[in-house]
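## Example record

The block below lists the input lines for one assembly entry, exactly as stored, with component labels intact.
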Amino acid sequence: QSALTQPASVSGSPGQSVAISCTGTNSDIGGYEFVSWYQQHPGKAPKLVIYDVNNRPSGVSNRFSGSKSGNTASLTISGLQAEDEADYYCNSYTSTTRYVFGTGTKVTVL
Amino acid sequence: EVQLVQSGAEVKKPGESLKISCKHSGDTFTNYWIGWVRQMPGKGLEWMGIIYARDSNTKYSPSFQGQVTISVDSSISTAYLQWSSLKASDTAIYYCARARDGLFYFDYLGQGSPVTVSS
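Predicted structure tokens for the full assembly:
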């Protein structure tokens, strides 16, 4: 089971929107509605920001949204803020190994 | 308040054994699967394996099968990750994470346990 594919980095200015893609296969993203996204600030533990493709946990800003089409999921951050600068990882349930993470994307706020 | 509190930093030599822990509180432990995630220095997250606290049903990522052992002691709401013979390449931060049975995302993660293996 290879890691899901994410762009290494994306950037945007404050107030803009950025989107992070996460590409898998029919055995993971394409086969289930179980995509989640995690935010990790430097030196901190990852934190759940989206679950089941497009649901936000309580306390997570509504500037974070998720979607999925075929074998690719996406995380969109709207109204980009300095505090959004972090690494982001997608994760999917998979029929082969149960879970797989994405390669990770560094979001830079210009 | 839900908490996953992990054991502290470890410094070990190659060939030594190690068992790190993850103590769950604030909710019913046996309703959850507890997974382990590796993050090597400067690298991304890797899913290692997961155990169901109610019956110890365990699933491993093929990359970690046979390399580590995941266990649980439900009487003290604690999950474990252990190695019988550490390698330098095991140097990483290890996070525990919980997923409610029937759900497929990690709603809480521990603070991380740094492990350094060096001669």
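The interface with chain A takes residues 35, 37, 44-47, 50, 59, 61-62, 95, 97, 103-112 of chain B (CB under 8 Å). The CA atoms of residues 49 and 60 of chain B lie 4 Å apart.
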